[in-house]
């Protein structure tokens, strides 16, 4: 039975429960939280609009009380009250008596109520301020002092110089100063503001509340794990069933039935002993789970029945995938070690992005929103999402959607960007319990590819201390507690100590984000400093931050890299007041949490020119992001098999603002999303220029050899064709190589290279966008209704049309492709869904690139 009819009240901190007033209670949003409840009651303005974030800071400084009444269970049995998610510091009473205390957002709180319930019962919860009772830890203070000194040296680097005199407003209580305190409590790190989002720490009952009554033994867990795939197509599968209470397992039997998508079934019966039943079984003609680009993400129906003396007493159903996943760390022929995932014995090039919570108010995110985002990732050609360590363990809908749609999950444990005082025994106990719970919860998902210890903890510790030796900073968590939990409760999914992480004797302490081993975060681009790819220095901040620096990166797996961009203007209009819709207005800069606020200007000056209007700012930053990520992905994919993954920072947004996301908070894809969807195609053609020499590469990330005819054209924007050659090419799976070379070519700003064939067409420009004479293209657009809420756009170009895109008429509208290049006379069709049935065809606006006039 779920309990969700809660009321809410706020008081000063520390008020006794007996002193609570009878009046003044508000309806509470459960699951949800305080902010959602206050918004529903009209007590606060939305924190995402304008600069309202500042006006709600008081919420995190009050006590918040939740209460609900519920009836007692009918009949006898073991009664348990389960809070699936409490955020974060909470005391609980039942019928006026203390029930318990809890302070971990990431694991349930469960209480045995057997014999304690009446016909009517009241549960009362007091949420204290999330950082209540904490001070700066010794480890945190030491780290902060050292990092302050490092950042002071960084500030002298020209890469940090601002292009103009745009004023920076210091933000009191930023994440860098709060994290050394917040690290002592198990709450999402991004709560305290990050360089992509506001300080809006969620508070309250963020997952369901359930009263369970067990009248006999029950199933408490299961694990279906694939150990091997044999040459004859059969799979060796380990089946684990857990039941409790363990003192009543005499005569218990677990029956497990696996049913394939084709309908074939495999049955096993396992006697339960000491609360566990385990057996290795063989599944003939196994239908394997693949990522969507390599095959079908086949899933088996699992039915588990617990029998007591032959009578069914409990049952559970699940869906699992049969697959093997290995992290290959073998020697790389070019030097160093590989970092490569092998799925069902097939090496893969992981293509995807970093996943953030889809809202600051995590408790009220609807499953439909999560599924829609995963669908966008899959439709964008992504095969892996990294659940970032500063966020949350996602709701079930996320992992289910990844299973269903064939998208792998890199799962960080939730530690980020600061030292963690492992000597705090309360914290250490919570970490161990949390790890056990989450590993057991997620281990059956076939999409789960990696457990990772943290985000950037080792990297920052190494920057501050010059080593990664054991000490009171989380070393035990990342190198013993978490891997032990993965080994004991999962046993098949690889574990990795952190992101980034690497060990290479030649690179020393810098190997943690180096190019010789492990994964790396490529932040030379955008931040403009050396993070391990090269040691160049630049006098101009634009050159230091420019995306051409990706070409120097020899990393083995790029788990973060990104460039800022604005969302569409329609999204900005929903969060900025009309009077603030101009570049660097107060509200505009408030929605950019990075520093400097004008950091992108130095790059825009080179790539597009500086924008003069907000409309230009939207387009220019989108161009900079899209062209930059395209350039980076093409470089990394040409390095396959030495590089084996690119995860863009970041996929989605926690609020409407300016960030590195490729899908904004309204779920509207930016230009970069569509560029990436083409760069992530299983077979990619890309050009590499070296002076007057031009190479065409073909990168094959599929399972089969590819043979095709590639047509290479060098054309002029005036319509002249300067070169046209056909070449028949064959590329093995997992390989990337040069398939065509042109020497002594005239590669000037008024020309471009174009490749087409059995792959998405691609092009290379020979100058920055602002210096290219595109001309003034004409667009002929025909809109045809194709069904309820659906239309087809047929676009024909007169002249070379760059950055051709349809603007989103309303949130929820989807374009199957967008932001295209069309040569003179070419036609493209864009399928549109998510429109209202009454949509006006004339209301869909299509534009091409317009340079600064």
TrEMBL record:
It catalyses: Hydrolysis of terminal, non-reducing beta-D-mannose residues in beta-D-mannosides. Residues 24-207 form the Beta-mannosidase-like galactose-binding domain. SUPFAM superfamilies: (Trans)glycosidases (SSF51445), beta-Galactosidase/glucuronidase domain (SSF49303), Galactose-binding domain-like (SSF49785). It is an enzyme of class 3 (hydrolase). Keywords: Glycoprotein, Glycosidase, Hydrolase. It comes from the Bacteria. Residues 223-323 form the Glycoside hydrolase family 2 immunoglobulin-like beta-sandwich domain. This is beta-mannosidase.
